[in-house]
Design a protein that fits this description.
The protein is mainly alpha-helical. The chain has a single domain, classed as Arc Repressor Mutant, subunit A, CATH 1.10.10. It contains five helices and two strands; from the N terminus they run H-H-H-H-E-E-H. Strand 1 and strand 2 form a beta hairpin. Helix 2 crosses helix 5 and helix 3 crosses helix 4. It starts with a helix and ends in a 15-residue tail after the last helix. Pfam families: HTH_5.
Length: 111
């Protein structure tokens, strides 16, 4: 049985990952299919260095894994349920309020 602290930690890690639009786009791309970093960088329109930093964050959060494929590395979601969670979360947020706009992250009273 999970403790409340571990539940909160897991949700906080997921929240930190989703707090950045590039990381959201990476997770959504990997939900569709595993990908190599060069392909992800090109499809998302970000530099490889920037993508690498975001992939490291997602790995540290335990949300993606690097799978060696020959001399290259392919990234994929750490668990297929994360893809379902992303779909469910997106659907729930859109169902609740479609015209909401989150205040600037710099607003200390928000989130």
């Amino acid at each position: 049985m999970l403790t409340i602290a571990s539940d909160v930690d897991a949700l906080a890690r997921f929240g930190r990952a989703l707090a950045d639009p590039i990381r959201c786009r990476i997770l959504l791309a990997l939900r569709a299919a595993p990908a190599h970093p060069a392909d992800l960088a090109e499809s998302l329109g970000v530099s490889r260095t920037r993508l690498s930093n975001h992939l490291a964050c997602l790995r540290d959060c335990g949300l993606v894994v690097a799978v060696p494929v020959g001399r290259r590395v392919r990234y994929e979601l750490a668990d297929h349920r994360l893809g379902h969670a992303l779909d469910d979360l997106r659907s729930a947020v859109l169902a609740v309020q479609t015209d909401a706009h989150c205040p600037d992250a710099a607003d200390k009273d928000c989130c």
